[in-house]
Amino acid sequence: MEEKKETQDLAQLKKEMLGVAIIKDTDMSPDMLSEVQDSIVSGIENNSSPVLSIENACKTIKEALEKKYGPTWQVIIGEGYAYDVTVQNNTRLFMFYNGCLACLVFKS
C-alpha cells in the first residue's frame, strides 16, 4: 500500500515538473535571460514529438540565439555531464528542463 502511494506521488511530481525550467547558474541580464530561456524551452518543445531530438533542439536554439545576439553561441543539452568552459561575460546559462534535462548555453 505504501509503495503504491510513493508511485502516485512520483507520478504527480513528474506532472508538476513537466515544462518547468529551473535556472541553476547564470550571469546574464534579466532581459537576456528571459529571452534565452524562452528560446531553450521552445527549441526543446518543438523538437520533442514523439521523442526529443537533442541534436535538432540544439540546432534550433543555436540558430535563434545567433540570429538575435550574433555568432558563436554553443548549446549543450543532455543528462549527467559536467562542464568547464571559458565564455564571454554575461552570456552563460545553465538550467534544468523537466527536472533532469540539463541545458548549457554560452557565447564563446
> Radius of gyration, rounded?
16 Å
Largest sheet: 4 strands, antiparallel
Overall outline = globular
SSE-based structural type: alpha+beta
Total of helices: 3
Distance between the ends: 53 Å
Mean pLDDT: 87
- The total of beta strands comes to 4
**What oligomeric state do these chains adopt?**
single chain
Helix fraction, binned, reads 40-55%
Order of helices and strands: HEHHEEE
Q: How big a fraction of the residues is strand?
A: 15-25%
Strand arrangement, major sheet = 1-3-4-2
Report the uncertain regions. none
Can you characterise this structure?
- The chain is of the alpha+beta class.
- The protein has three helices and four strands, in the order αβααβββ.
- It has helices at 2-17, 30-46, 54-69, and strands at 21-26, 73-78, 93-97, 101-107.
- The chain has a four-stranded antiparallel beta sheet, covered by helices on one side.
- A hairpin with a 3-residue loop joins strand 3 (93-97) and strand 4 (101-107).
- The longest helix has 17 residues, at 30-46.
Could you outline the blueprint of secondary structure elements for this entry?
Blueprint: H1 2-17, E1 21-26, H2 30-46, H3 54-69, E2 73-78, E3 93-97, E4 101-107
Antiparallel strand pairs: 1-3, 2-4, 3-4
